[in-house]
Design goal:
The chain is built from 25 helices and 13 strands. The protein has about 625 residues and is α/β, with parallel strands linked by helices.
């Protein structure tokens, strides 16, 4: 049956091409753009490129574009008043949901009890395997060419070599490649390394789906979006993913080392080198046989668990009403899609997010929106007809656009991607002795080490990767981030003295005492109090504590030992979230409007205490640009 459906899909594409040639002559699109593999999200297996009318049944949906917004929830659009009226009996339950109320309060408030998350003894967590599939830090363009190699308009940007030394999240790679100029003529070699074999091979499959010939860019980007974030897949998409896995991992047990060279749509290749044992887990996941019903039950046992209610509603209490409803819809269905889109076509579990036994492996607090630029997410949604209120629908269109642009860039430019799975320190030593021929000159223009420093220490991190920096490129840099620097004395955590700390900080702000008097009167049951406390780190400089951390890490001795220096003013990423890259040296705290704070920290999930570090070669002349500290 599967083979027959694929034959029919190809035949339908050829017939469409024939008809277009008759109708449009020499204006016909490419064969690839017309070919459909039946992997789309809509009820008839076509792709979703614009918001359709919200009138949908369990059988089919109205295929007309939606433009009449539901004036109550702002989450659904209809093509006509008739469709809006006809759909109302089904839409009523969502449109009148308590989460959409401006006066909605969490359950612990209405039930007059303390929230369970205040006391660790109330949280009984049963063990289940989890993997951080999505990450929680905004994606980084590790090149920032306008302030680096591209700052001299008279000098063309040469070949580039980029290393993501510990990156299970491919969003940094996507953001960086998408930032390359459309006319970039050099060669770009990318090394993408991660120790977790599930993440490594999931990324390899995602890259193959996006970059290999076959489905159109539109269709490939749509199925890749769901493979990243949805609990279920359209039947045609699930079958295609399985075929890709079979092709990539054929004969993978023949040797101790798994090695592949995969063609892309363009000149570049996708290479992979890793231990063969690392491929087994993903193959077990792909070849599992549990049904969709049991997979969705496992997902809801986590996302809708009663013992998670207070934690979920704590986050919901910080959201705008429509955003609460959009998140709730995602938690119910597990499908990243516009709010009104029917999910009848999603008939197979996304086995990349479940264990071989069908257990949901996404952490309880994982959020697909965390790590994405919310302002760009909403702009993408508006471009495709979605309202900003349907934040998850906006996210669907934005991720799909980003993945499509990434695939387009790789097709048109000269880009090779090398996917590996080794301990970062061992990988660095292997590169030094020429184990990876593409990088045998041991000269990277960017080395992104992620939060390796939190696990191995700064000296080890610099000792491993500092010697691999391209000393001939004055803009070359080693980029680090640290979450673990924030010792308990530096950041704000709930504890016995938390209320006193909050009172002390608030009392320093003139005139604020009266405004928050009612909040303190509610005690630890006040949702507003939680929001204030969670945001304190945005207004806590903690610079002295961070400098203590740097001294503890012997940063001065380490950079001297490896002929490096710590940049006083960054050229790639701000020192902390909420501060512009070109901010003056004296600015230590974010200067944001309430809407900007909401987008970056509440919706975008930027981790307030995270700090970023940039190192460059001692002989670099970029220090002249850095100016004051």
């Amino acid at each position: 049956m599967a083979a027959k459906s694929w034959y029919n899909a190809v035949l339908a594409g050829l017939r469409k091409l024939r008809d277009d040639i008759k109708d449009r002559g020499d204006k016909v699109e490419s064969l690839e753009s017309l070919m459909s593999f039946g992997m789309g999200s809509s009820w008839n297996s076509t792709t979703v490129s614009h918001l359709m009318c919200g009138h949908a049944t369990s059988i089919k949906s109205c295929l007309s574009p939606g433009f009449l917004v539901c004036d109550k929830c702002h989450l659904v659009k209809y093509c006509s008043e008739k469709c809006r009226t006809t759909h109302w009996p089904k839409h009523r339950s969502y449109c009148s949901h308590p989460y959409l109320g401006e006066t909605w309060q969490p359950s612990w408030v209405t039930e007059r009890r303390d929230p369970t998350f205040l006391y660790a003894s109330n949280l009984l967590t049963l063990y289940r395997p989890t993997i951080d599939f999505w990450g929680d830090l905004p994606a980084m363009d590790c090149l920032q060419l306008p302030t680096n190699e591209g700052s001299d308009y008279l000098r063309p940007i040469g070949d580039l070599k980029l290393c993501f030394a510990a990156s299970g999240d491919i969003r940094n790679l996507i953001r960086t490649i998408n930032s390359l100029p459309a006319d970039y003529s050099g060669y770009c070699d990318v090394l993408l390394n991660e120790t977790n074999p599930v993440l490594v091979n999931r990324n390899l499959v995602l890259l193959f789906i996006l970059l290999s010939s076959g489905p159109s860019l539109e269709e490939a980007a749509e199925i890749a979006t769901h493979l990243m974030y949805s609990a279920a897949l359209p039947g045609g998409g699930a079958e295609y993913v399985k075929r890709c896995v079979t092709f990539i991992y054929r004969d993978c047990d023949a040797d101790l080392s798994f090695q592949r060279c995969l063609d892309t749509r363009g000149e570049g290749k996708v290479y992979s080198v890793q231990p063969s044992t690392g491929t087994k887990r993903l193959l077990e996941m792909t070849h599992s046989t549990y049904p969709l019903s049991s997979a969705l039950k496992s997902m809801k046992d986590t996302t809708m668990a009663p013992d998670q209610l207070d934690s979920n509603e704590k986050y919901f209490s910080s959201l705008k009403p429509a955003h609460r409803m959009s998140f709730q819809r995602y938690r119910e269905t597990g499908i990243l899609a516009p709010f009104s889109m029917t999910t009848v076509n999603f008939t197979q579990p996304n086995r990349f997010l479940f264990s071989p036994q069908g257990i949901w492996m996404v952490p309880e607090d994982a959020n697909p929106l965390f790590g994405w630029d919310v302002s760009r997410v909403q702009a993408s949604g508006i471009k495709h007809g979605t309202t900003p209120e349907d934040i998850m629908g906006c996210l669907f269109f934005h991720i799909k656009d980003e993945l499509r642009e990434f695939a387009k860039r790789v097709k048109e430019l000269k880009i090779d991607i090398h996917v590996t799975s080794f301990d970062a320190g061992i990988l660095a030593k292997g590169i030094t002795i020429g184990a990876l021929p593409a990088f045998e000159d041991t000269s990277f223009d960017r080395i992104v080490t992620g939060n390796l420093v939190d696990f191995v220490g700064m000296r080890t991190c610099l000792a491993d990767w500092g010697p691999l920096l391209n000393r001939d490129n004055e803009f070359a840099s080693v980029l680090m981030q640290t979450k673990a620097w924030d010792r308990p004395r530096a950041t704000n955590q709930w504890g016995p003295h938390a209320m006193e700390l909050l009172m002390e900080k608030c009392n320093r702000i003139p005139g604020l005492e009266v405004k928050i008097k009612s909040i303190f009167a509610q005690g630890l049951r006040s949702p507003a109090l939680f929001r204030i406390f969670d945001s304190l780190d945005a207004f806590s400089e903690n610079e002295d504590a961070f400098q203590d951390y740097l001294r503890d890490q012997d940063v001065d001795e380490s950079v001297a030992a490896f002929d490096l220096r710590l940049r006083t003013k960054h050229r790639v990423h701000p020192k902390r979230f909420g501060i512009p890259l070109d901010a003056p040296g004296w600015q230590k705290l974010p200067d944001l409007s309430s809407d900007e704070f909401y987008d970056i920290f509440t919706l975008g999930g930027a981790n307030l205490p995270v700090r970023f570090l940039e190192f460059e070669a001692m002989g670099s002349t970029t220090s002249e640009w850095t100016g004051e500290f």
